[in-house]
Each structure stands twice: as C-alpha cells, then as structure tokens.
Amino acid sequence: MFAQDYNENPFIVIWELTRACELKCLHCRAEAQHKRHPLELRFEEGKKLIDDIHSMGNPMLVFTGGDPLMRDDVYDIAKYAIDKGVRVSMTPSATPNVTKAAMEKAKEVGLSRWAFSLDGPNAVIHDHFRGTAGSFKLTMNAINYLHELKMPIQINTVISKYNYDYLDEMAALVEDLNCVLWSVFFLVPTGRGQEKDMISPVEHEKVFHWLYDLSKQVPFDIKTTAAQHYRRVVIQNKMRDKGFSKEDKPFKYKDVLLKGETGRIDGLGRAPKGVNDGNGFVFISHIGDVYPSGLLPIKAGNVRETPLSAIYRESEIFKSLRDPDSYKGKCGVCEYKHVCGGSRSRAYALTGDYLESEPACVYIPKAWRRKASHE
C-alpha cells in the first residue's frame, strides 16, 4: 500500500480535453470559451499521451474541461485508454449535450464513472454559481439518466460563500441522489474565481470538522480537493476518538492510516498517501501544457515537446513541490507537513509563491507554540 513513489509516478492525471463549454461558471478555473481552441491536442497526439500515462504506473485518468462532450472524438479517446486498461472517469458539464444516448455510449465504451457538479441544494443557488439558468434541472435529469443506466455517480461541489450556509441541505441531497462519492472542492481564486468568493480560514476549519462528523454517518465516501489541511483535522479527530496520545515526531502516512468502522478512513484512504499539486497529481491542458494542477498555473513543459513522464519526474517545479522541507512559513515547520502540506495552489494564488504557507489554515504548529511559550 505504501510502495507508490510520487517522485516517479502520479496517483491521478487530469487531462483538459477542451476549454469549450456552454456554461459561465463564476469560479471557472479554465475561463471556458464557447468554441474549441484550434490548437487542442489531436486524437493521435492524445493516444501518444495516453500511452505515456499508462507507462507511469497506470494512474487514474480524468477527462475534464471546459466540457469534454464538446469534443466529437471524446468516446474514441476514452475507448483507446480503456482498452489499454486505464481507469477513466469524466466530468462533463450539465448542458443539453448530456443526453441519455451520450451516457449509454459512455457506458458502452467502459467509462467507469461520471461526475456532475452541484453547487447548491436548489436551482436558485446552483444556477447563480454556474452562471446559467436551468443548469440545476439539467444536472438532476442527467443524474436520473445515470441511475437508469446503473452507472455510479460522483457529485462535485465547490465550497464558497454562496453555499456555505446550505451544506446540511447539500449533504442530504447527495445522500438522496444515492451517490457513491461527494467530492468537495474548496475555492482557489484563479481563473474566474475571486478571493472575495472564498470562505474564511475559520470557516474552512468549521467545514472540515463538519465533514469529518458527516463522514461517519453517511453511506457515500467524501473526498476533498484544495483542502490538504482536512487531512490534519481527520488525523486529530481520529487520534482523539481512538484515545491516542499526541507525539512530537512528524506524522507519516503509515502512522495514521487507521481503518474506521466502515472500512473507509474518511478522505485519506483513496490514495496510498497524501496527494498535492505536483505531488501525485499532474494536469495537462487542452493544448498540451503541463502544470502541477489546474489550479496552479505555472507551466512546467508541453507534451508535444517532452513526454509527460519526463516533465513530471524531472521538472524543478515538480521536484520542489514534492519536498515538504522546501515549504516556507508555518507550513515549513508544521508537524503535519508530510501528510498535509497545505494547498500549494491557494498559497500561489494569494501570495504569489507556491511554497508559502497555506493562507486558509488556522492551525499553529507545535514548533511555533513552543517558541512563543519561551519568549
């Protein structure tokens, strides 16, 4: 379980097939456009990329956008990957492109899971956030189609000031929709996302504790994105629940991966260790540019010029992101830095330095507390 080396291979690869999309989401990382870019990776280039991805320990591959369904060859690309044994999922936008026929075709080629975004428990909140009237209704219709086809459903939600007060209702809706996974994103101000739309650091902490409690009560799994410090909250709660004493030594994943009563470990157990920007995670843009994540817009190379494997393993940007000892401020001295590390994307978005401390974390490391007590 602990053999995977993120210096060599990622746990998950995100490929932005296109930036074309019919929605106008307030937070859109991609700043999506209505038309496809003429320099998108072509089908043959995509096959070469998939071959390289497969050679890197066969990580999970997610097709994203924009809206992947804006590409006519999306199912050909998916079939090529699936036939090689790659685990593929897709995050299409809820637009009129999402028909039952489209889903049947996806199931036919072997797409393992579809993910749809729901950012509010009703049309008023969701449609405002997505910038398009009728988006909530289209999403619910699409979910019903997936149920009819017996395809597993993942719901993605971006936590922002627009839905912070409605999270109980959101959790109830996810459960009512019989979803297998609730993937909870915490807003990073990049693309169309604005700092004013973020919840505060204290509100981040409140949501983390709420998610931990929720995870012990619901039938679906919970995963967080751009919320690496949720791992610290999970560890703290599990140590308290199990009656463990706190130790001064830095936490390692092998010390904290403790199975819960449900067999899950509440957001920590999908990957063999913590995934962060450039550390187990890599993003390829629609034109082949490679980034540590879609939320950290620092280009490390392009797959048209250099194989993805070489960029991931050899880029100095990626190497620094995989070294917690290079982190600055309180993240650099925090005892949780090997299991958390903070969102490198949010650090970059708010400070201009991807190695700086996580701005949305309220935790004070032991080293700082000890120093303050001796002053």
List keywords for this structure.
375 residues, alpha/beta, 10-stranded mixed β-sheet, 10 strands
CATH class: Alpha Beta
How helical, in percent, are the residues?
25-40%
CATH topology: TIM Barrel
Shape: globular
Q: In which order are the strands of the major sheet placed?
A: 7-6-5-4-3-2-1-8-9-10
Mean pLDDT: 86
SS-based structural class? alpha/beta
* Poorly predicted sequence stretches spanning 5 or more consecutive residues: 258-269
The name of the CATH architecture is: Alpha-Beta Barrel
Overall strand count: 10
CATH superfamily: Aldolase class I
Largest sheet: 10 strands, mixed
Number of helical regions: 14
Number of domains: 1
% residues in beta strands: 5-15%
Distance between the termini: 43 Å
In N-to-C order, the SSE pattern is EHEHEHEHHEHEHEHHEEEHHHHH
Radius of gyration of CA atoms, rounded to a whole number: 20 Å
What does this structure look like?
By secondary structure, the chain is α/β, with parallel strands linked by helices. The protein has one domain (12-314): TIM Barrel (Alpha-Beta Barrel), CATH 3.20.20. It has 14 helices and 10 strands. The protein has a 10-stranded mixed sheet. It comes from Evansella tamaricis.
